[in-house]
Design brief:
By secondary structure, the protein is an alpha+beta fold. The chain has 3 helices and 5 strands, in the order αααβββββ. Strands 4-3-2-1-5 form a 5-stranded antiparallel beta sheet. β1 and β2 form a beta hairpin. This is TIGR02594 family protein.
């Protein structure tokens, strides 16, 4: 009985990536003009990392050092191979010299594209499509 209780307590204490996705989804379609609660000027800086830090804190997760920089999310949690990504995992992508961070939602049927939910995607919080080849890191 003690072993079962210990297992249940461990599972309940483990961070849930699904919690981050459900927390983030509460802000679906919110435009950058409405995100002053992040404490950043969204019209002047990329705010994807700031949004994810806000979501992580509300989900009782610790954001990385300097969370406003998308690339810093490559050190969040633990690494996961992209093909094993689950809804709510943190995904860092690269486009040219810039990075973007968001939450994994799903792959398309052909596994050519990944759908990510996050901030600073067309100036709002939303689900957007990216090429799988742009994935730099998946973190859980």
């Amino acid at each position: 009985m003690r072993v079962i209780l210990a297992i249940i307590a461990t599972l309940l204490a483990a961070p849930s990536n699904a919690d981050m996705l459900s927390t983030a989804s509460k802000f679906n379609n919110m435009h950058e003009r409405s995100i002053n609660f992040l404490g950043v000027n969204a019209r002047k800086i990329a705010w994807c990392g700031a949004f994810l830090a806000y979501v992580a804190k509300r989900s009782f997760r610790q954001p990385p050092t300097n969370p406003n920089m998308a690339a810093s999310w490559k050190s969040f949690g633990r690494p996961v191979a992209y093909r094993f990504a689950r809804p709510g995992d943190v995904v860092v992508i690269r486009s040219g010299k810039r990075f973007h961070v968001s939450l994994f939602h799903h792959f398309d049927n052909k596994r050519t594209y990944v759908y990510l939910f996050g901030g600073n995607q067309s100036d709002r919080v939303q689900l957007s499509r990216y090429r799988i080849s742009s994935i730099v890191a998946v973190r859980r």
